[in-house]
Amino acid sequence: MSEILYESVVCPSCGCLCDDIDVVVEENRVKSIRNVCEWGISKFLFTKKFTPNVKRGRVEKPMIREKTLVETDYEAAISRAVDILKGSKKPLIYGLTNSGYNAQKIALSIARRLKGLFEPRGAALLSSYYAAMGDSNFYVAPLEEIRNNADLIIYWGCNPIHSTPRHLARYSVYPRGRCKERGSQDRVVFTVDVAENEMGKLSRRFLQVERGTDFLVMETMMKLLREENAEDYKGDIATIENMVRQMTKVSYGAIFFGMGLSAKDNAAKNIENLMALVKELNRKTRFVILPLYDDFNTSGVIQLLIRELKSPMPADFSGDHVAKNSKYSLLENLHEIDAALVVGDDPFWSLPSEKSDLLKKIPMVLIDPYWTRTTNKAQVVFPTAVTGIEAEGIAYRMDGLPLKLKKVLESEYPSDESILGDIYQRLQ
Amino acid sequence: MKIKIEGGRLYDLRNNLDGEERDIFIEDGIIVEGFSSADRTIDASGKAIMAGGIDVHSHIATYGLNLIRGTNRFYSPSEIGHIYAKMGYTHVNEPFMTQVTANYVHHELSSIPILDTSAFLVLNLRDVEGKIKSAKHLEEVEKIIPIIIAGTKAIGLKIYEPFVKYAERKYILRNVTAKKVLSFFSGMSRESIPRIIMHTSPELFGEEIENPGGFHFSHVGSAIGNEEAYQKVLSYLNAGATIDLGLFDLEQNLRISNPKQTVGEVFGRVDMGLSEDIVFSKGKVSGSEAPFFAFKLALSQPSNHISFSTDSPANASFEAYPKIFSWLMKAENRANLFDKELPEFEYSLLDIARITRHNPAYILGLKNKGHLGAGAEADIAIYDINEETKPSELEARFKDCAYLIKSGSIVVEDHQMVNDQVEKKTYYRGVEPLDYEPAKIMTSYSTFRFENFIVDEVFTAEEVKI
Ligand code: SF4
Prior knowledge:
The complex is a heterodimer. Helices cover 35% and strands 22% of the residues of chain A. By secondary structure, chain A is an alpha/beta fold. Chain B has one domain (5-465): Alpha-Beta Barrel (TIM Barrel), CATH 3.20.20. Chain B has helices at residues 65-69, 77-86, 102-110, 138-151, 178-186, 202-206, 227-238, 290-298, 321-329, 349-364, 394-399, 450-453, and strands at 2-6, 9-12, 17-21, 24-27, 30-32, 40-43, 48-51, 53-55, 89-98, 116-122, 156-159, 196-198, 215-217, 242-244, 253-257, 265-270, 278-283, 306-307, 380-383, 403-406, 409-413, 416-417, 425-428, 462-465. At the A-B interface, helix 4, strand 10, helix 5, helix 12 and strand 22 of A face helix 1, helix 3 and strand 16 of B. Iron/sulfur cluster binds next to helix 1 of chain A. Residues 11, 13-14, 16-18, 36-37, 39-40, 164-166 of chain A line the site of iron/sulfur cluster (SF4).
């Protein structure tokens, strides 16, 4: 059987969307793969994250719940899904950050048609980021320019080694850039997180903060920048002083922030202060800020929401107006929801139990290639092709630049885009 | 569908029609000589007919604009499509697409309903800094640029900063002066790049340009704040250069500029790999003579080398075009704009068609657009305008066309939007044969592999290579 080489494939695993993956396929299986990180390998081999020799269980047939989940055919599953969604007064369409752009687009149309709610995973933090952008200023750069210019990289509330493993190698710390020709020797790294992790060893400074209190650190930094008294801060003020000194000395800083900043429901406060800090820093030197997305197409769903609704906030179509956007996560009002369509996410793993428990009480339609903690709670389950490996698509990198996702393996399963398309058709 | 438009007065420079009454026949999306029976007849008597409007320079998909839109300070793609269509426009050209943002810009453009689109490629001169210091590498660069244009599906080459300048002193040897850049690109053969688009600034008009006839100067109004610069533009026009006007409406507008040219409130900045950030701000231009000179220029010398623009949204948002047309057409409409006297010249409907259809089509190289002759794309705008239209009514009539036909489909009928799901296309300049190899040096510092720079069809509307 002949081998097929696919060059410059985009890895559909995290928001880095590395585009330099060379994949050799033989008999519809990945035989070898170059440049990819361990997380990416697991994705291409359908194994557990960072554990390339442990297979992940794939959902193999459409299923509907009788007493237990039973296998059925595609048509019957579609009918049941449509019945559930049509019968709902206020359905929630949730997840979508691991789907291609066109699938996200159909999901948004479904929410609109059903007068439901649409919320991508991780919306609380992102909503806060965009809200803060409206109040403060934005300072962004494509990763291209960060790699070319940045001499200080700060990871705040995120661990790129786990969530976006090649971020350091491709975009921030190690690569040689046009004005940073010696790569990491020309750059300094800081990390701010709740517990010292691998990043601590890599970083010139590691600042440990108490969970959910990052906003206090930012406040302190701003005071120091303004040369005000910051003695009331109770934590590691010496490191903060040190960091601030360095931050004003560099020519180009880049801050990447992650989900850590949404701890203890303090996302809004943390992000507001972080954006204000970046504004303050830009009075002295040049700083840019970007969210570090661990799902591969969070950025896509944000672009979509902005394009369609002029706001990246979760959308509530239930009112008289076309769309009412909410600043915060709509999951605060989960008790109002009477059905859910979950795409490519595992809310019973990713949401706090007080929220996911509410999902147990309502019928749920799930589209996901794998068995997860959520599978057994669903009324209807669709197996699906893995986007970017078994189906084409479009994804947006964390800096908002889109790439085409290729198909390198044949699959017996439909893409999430086509399943969503079939559901949407039947709702007409 | 076969459509016949009866009894309208046509305004079309290319076909020497200055209000002549002619019928138009449309078949399969194209204007044809005639046919015996139509599926649909539109009565256009008492109305003015022009080809669909072509906007040569409007920021509708610039990277960063989505962040402005995300805080509800810019139009959605659907609003853009609808507003332009109601004004009788069918094609908009995005003037700021870099190699890095090409996929983004095309994907954004393809989400705008109704309108055909195209984009200028803003070349990052840093990618060729070693090659543009002398004419030695001219041939090599002449080879690379058309490939990059074709690969990014751009329609033309634009130079935003005509120099290379590094902030860090240690890179001083990499810097290239404006003089050298201008001299290098002046020498470029018109066969490889028909016309190089120059972003204009007061600094640019302070430089000497050897061969201005090879350039198109964008929104010159933004850069002519005094008589000297004004005279310079006239001399460039005489030497064969083309321009778009960059007219103003003197309102609060969103500006996409370098940090020096911001006005009012600043919203944010984006590093596009140039020597300075691109800054988004909003406010009113004040204390500058530029708006006056821009109108003086517009009213001095209508010619085939001048296209309409406002550098939308900067000097005026595209939504203000009808108001500005009414100012150009009637002196009484613009009487209170400035303290100083403007020329008395008044645009005719043919002049408006010339600066919004004929000339932009020429600059963009769109042979089948901008006119109403047989073989042209059936993009047609019908306005309720005739000799009886009062000066005070012009703005409203241009804002709200009676009919718009796009690629042979009726989009606006009797002032109502009836269909926004019509065929739309992405126009770009191709090259034959297309061998990407010489252009691969353009990605030496990139986070993308060269293959992924090449804009795939998934990001564009139906592609048309010119
Ligand atoms: S860093 Fe992310 S995108 Fe890149 S190879 Fe690893 S998982 Fe894939």
